[in-house]
Each structure stands twice: as structure tokens, then as C-alpha cells.
Amino acid sequence: MLKKALEDVLTEKESDGLISAFDQIGRIIIVRIPDSLLSKKKIIGKTLLDEVKIVKSVFYQASAVEGDFRTRDLEILAGEDNTETEYREFGCRFTVDVKNAFFSPRLSTERERIANLIQEGEIMTNMFAGVGMFSIMAAKRKKCTVYSLDINPIASKLCEANIGLNRLAGNVISINGDSSQIIKEQLMNKSDRTLMLLPERSDEFLEPAISTTKDGGIIHYYSHIHADKKTDAVKLSEERYLSVTPVKSEILDSKIVRAVGPRYYQTVVDVRISK
Which residue of 47, 109, 183, 192 lies most exposed, with the fewest beta carbons within 10 A? Predict the structure, then answer.
């Protein structure tokens, strides 16, 4: 449908690349447009708005996700200039702000995987929780307690709202601030399971992740790995973790979460630590 709608504007190759580079989040579309097509961005935005009927806004992603708050610059191309929307996933409801708080629809499979791994009665520390999606999905699936940490005050406020939307008050506890400091002051040796979904800075935060995790607990360590062959990425991610960890660790599982660039992969290594 979209390819046909764009056939008067783009070549087939350009259309294929564009369609693979946009995300629909509730009533919002975010599209990444190559420099060669920026002159056509407004007509691309209007076409997407016209063709995807439930969508109210189309934004061009003008920067990568960056900074401590993990935000990005968005430019309105068509529709309403409103970056907040409701998003649903696996029976949970979320209010998200696609500009001012970290959120990625492309992590849905990983969110479900973590939710399925959680055990009844566990305590989990989610060190970089954003609007609370991993935390809420885990607590919705199993009776557990999740400390949902984020340094971005907008993300933490949205997490609190999403806890209410999903009726999980007391099960998910949102704390705003630097995760390292929060762990040092409140969560030492507290967690059966620790999620550290900040792949570009995991090495920097590995020590506090270990500090919050009990002896025998599990850490989900995410990283960005460059690999000439996709088949090598998992092994390289395991080697990277083992080269930086200061504690004895048993690797339980490892996998590619998603591709994030040419020969670049987001990976996760699940480890059980011994202190």
C-alpha cells in the first residue's frame, strides 16, 4: 500500500529503504530519511499520514538517541505536533513521549523474553528503565517487585503514570536519579535479577549492576558489538563481558537482540554471578 502511494515520489529501491526505516508507535510515525531524500521529506510525511489512517502525526528523526536522558530531535512533517501517544504491547498500556523519553518498539521481542524469564517473588532492578516498559511487562506477567530507575525526570514521571495505568502500584517502584547512586544508597545486594539496557555504556555501569545483584543472582548485560560476520557477534559479546567482569560468572544464554547498523549488533549476555 505504502509503496504504491509513494511510487510517484520515490524509486522502488528508495521506497523499500524508507519503509524499513520507520516506526509506528500508537498514533505516531517516526521516519529516518537519508540525506538524498531530505528534499522530499514533507511529501513523504504527508503520504504516510494519508495512507496510515490511525496515525495523527509523522515526524522525521533528525538526530540519533543521545545524551544521559536518551532523547532525540524530531521534526514534524505532517499532522499534529504532539510527541505523546498511547502504545499497547502484550496486554499492557503505556503513555510514551517519543521525543523526551527513551522508547523503542523494536525491543518488543526482548521485553517479552525478559518477562518470561522472571520468576514468582523475584526482585529485579531495571537500571535504565525509560518509561517502564520492561518493568511493567515483567510485573504484569509474574508476581514480582521491580525497581525501575531512570535519570530522566520525564521518563520517570511517565513510568509512574504507566504503573497506574496497569494497576501495578507497589509492584513496580519508579525512582528518578542516577542508577549508580540510587543503588549505592538504597539497593545494595537487593536484586535477584538486574537489567542493564544501556548497551553503549554497559561497561561503565557493570560495577553498580553487580553491587545491586545478590550472590547467585542474574545480570542481563547488553552491549553493542561490531562483527564482520553476524554469526560471530554472540561469541564476541560473551568474550567482551568476560573480559570486563570482576566477578565469577556463569553464562546462561546470549543472543543478538537486533541489528543497529552495518555489521553492528545489539547483543545480550545473561549471566549468573558469584560474589
Answer: 109
Residues counted in the chain: 275
Domains of the chain in start order, with CATH, are 2-82 (3.30.300.110), 103-274 (3.40.50.150)
Alpha helices by DSSP H, listed for the chain, are 2-6, 12-19, 41-51, 108-117, 133-141, 153-165, 179-186, 202-212, 233-244
Q: Classify 68 as helix, strand or coil.
A: coil
How far is Cα 204 from Cα 44, in angstroms, rounded to an integer? 40
- Set of cell numbers at residue 2: 505504502
Encode pLDDT of 201-257 as tens digits: 999 999 999 999 999 999 999 999 999 999 999 999 999 999 999 999 999 999 999
In order, the DSSP letters of 126-192 are ETT-TTTHHHHHHHHHSS-EEEEEES-HHHHHHHHHHHHHTT-BTTEEEEES-HHHHHHHH-TT-EE
Beta carbons of 50 and 5 less than 8 angstroms apart: yes
List for the chain the helix, strand, coil content (%; round to 5): 35, 35, 30
| Residue 118 φ/ψ, nearest 5 degrees | -60, 140
141-196 pLDDT, tens digit per residue, is 999 999 999 999 999 999 999 999 999 999 999 999 999 999 999 999 999 999 99
